[in-house]
Specification:
By secondary structure, the protein is of the alpha/beta class. The protein contains 2 helices and 3 strands, in the order E-H-E-H-E. 11% of the residues are buried.
């Protein structure tokens, strides 16, 4: 089975919803499986840290998620002038 990593960052939930729709589409392909992962929130305070496990939603991505995936879909909201 081929794992496809759906990696995203979402602040308001819109990219989270899109990531889950992409994962649903991946799951419709025979032999494909979606692995949904997120990243910790971006902070302007360098000293601020996030817990090792998010309080809700997808788990944070780990290096093994990238090593084990056969493909990657990624997304992030428009922030910081991007």
């Amino acid at each position: 089975m081929n794992d496809l990593l759906v990696l995203y960052y979402s602040r308001s939930g819109k990219v989270d919803r899109l990531a889950h729709l992409i994962a649903h589409g991946i799951e419709q392909v025979p032999g494909a499986r979606a692995r949904i992962r997120t990243v910790p929130p971006v902070s302007t305070v360098c000293e601020q840290t996030e817990p090792a496990v998010p309080p809700s939603g997808a788990p944070y991505a780990q290096l093994r998620d990238l090593e084990e995936c056969a493909g990657l879909a990624r997304g992030s909201p428009t922030r910081f002038g991007n």
